[in-house]
Amino acid sequence: MVERLPDDQKLTEILKAVSEPRRRELLTLLVQHGPIRVTDLARHFDISLNAVSKHIKILEAAGLVCRRTEWREHLIEPDMGPVGEIDRWFRELRSIWDKRLDGLEDVLSKETDDE
Amino acid sequence: MVERLPDDQKLTEILKAVSEPRRRELLTLLVQHGPIRVTDLARHFDISLNAVSKHIKILEAAGLVCRRTEWREHLIEPDMGPVGEIDRWFRELRSIWDKRLDGLEDVLSKETDDE
DNA sequence: ATTTCAGTCAACCATTTAGTTGAATGAATT
DNA sequence: AATTCATTCAACTAAATGGTTGACTGAAAT
User: Fold this and answer.
1) Quick check: B9 CB within 7 A of strand C?
2) Among A5, A34, A105, A113, which is most buried by a count of CB atoms within 10 Å?
């Protein structure tokens, strides 16, 4: 069986968050615009304010966004940090891949025929 | 309104594909193991062969995996290529962010308040 | 000729997801 | 006192998702 890494859950949360096109748009607007209120954010999209609010909660849970609340107004701003987790995963995967290919060269020198 | 990039759809496909923990496990096993048959792949997981088959199709559609079919036997092997798309997206996002921060310094000197 | 086998396809089910509308909250403004 | 306002919460709907079981295919092995 395949071992499940401990940070798997967090990585899943991050990846699921950014796999939604609208959430990526949201994120893009956030990095372009900087801190912005939920309502103003919603104005740029053709979905309801509520939908935007929910998307933000998901981004927030993933740590991709943080919120500074000042009574009614919630200032939302992006946090690129968690995207590094994705990068780390990718890097690890590639390292495993490379390691295997290195090992393969040894096998090739022995001429062990296997495809 | 927010502009939608043309490669958005492909990126979504890739991200959705890897956002599924089991698919990441599948991918991990693939890079560790190299080309492997669907059935052998499935043996490592506690879900049905059919479920694995479906996951592979999704990975394949995203270009993360390719398949060499030889009659009944389908040899599956990973392709890290598309993960670069994720990286590119991330990099672009960060570049926008950095650009904005640079601009912000100018704004701070002018003190033009605008939301 | 029958069975075995690797894999997909099809139909179905339960859960999650993205969206909606319609409250409720409670300070600030009128 | 009544209204406005920014946001979330709750309930609902439709669609997508991940899983299952049960065919089906057609060469190879018995």
Assistant:
1) no
2) A34
